[in-house]
Amino acid sequence: MILAIPDVLTGDALATARAKIESATWIDGKATAGHQGARVKDNQQLATDDPAGREVGAQIVAALQKNPLFVSAALPLHILPPMFNRYSGGQTFGTHVDGSIRTLPDGRRIRTDLSCTLFFAEPDEYEGGELIIEDTYGTKSVKLPAGHLILYPSTSLHSVTPVTRGTRLCSFFWLQSMIRDDARRALLFEMDVGIQRIAADSPGHPGVVQLTGVYHNLLRQWAEI
Description:
By secondary structure, the protein is of the alpha+beta class. Helices cover 33% and strands 32% of the residues. Strands 1, 2, 4, 5, 6, 10, 14 and 17 form an eight-stranded antiparallel β-sheet that branches. Helix 1 (11-22) packs antiparallel against helix 3.
């Protein structure tokens, strides 16, 4: 499932966060790439211990934990601290797949079920820079407004096209979901959306309670916590 989450950051919060990361010290993105990724990666990143990156990353996670659409779609168990990258002057990231295991700051290892990209630059500020995701049902090209996030399976092959004008500025990170299987996670999301629609259209409808019970029984059966 590939899903856009709108308005994770907005207004002054977005502008302040962007200013903080833009004024931070950037390094070669290859410093955090694996063997396969380093061969096709050409961008800049903030160091993982950069104070501005940590502050804005915590802000992103806090916003997502309060976002009903994100929580419903991702069913997050662990979220890795967000990282930040930028592309300009023809920089690109060739086709690759994200590593399956990542390490939290406390040393625990987590499985990367879902990948996230949060955009900080508006689409008209740069040319190129589309996130290309090779999905089961075809190839998706993604370039969202600032403050919006794209959520997609970490198993997907993906790339970033060359940025030929301006600067593409994003946060990227991974999470482990309570539901390992993408198809099951998608079913639970669709059921949750359906329950909310029925509840809104027919308040007090007894079917809402029954369907909510089915939802939680499936979650109870499938969740890994």
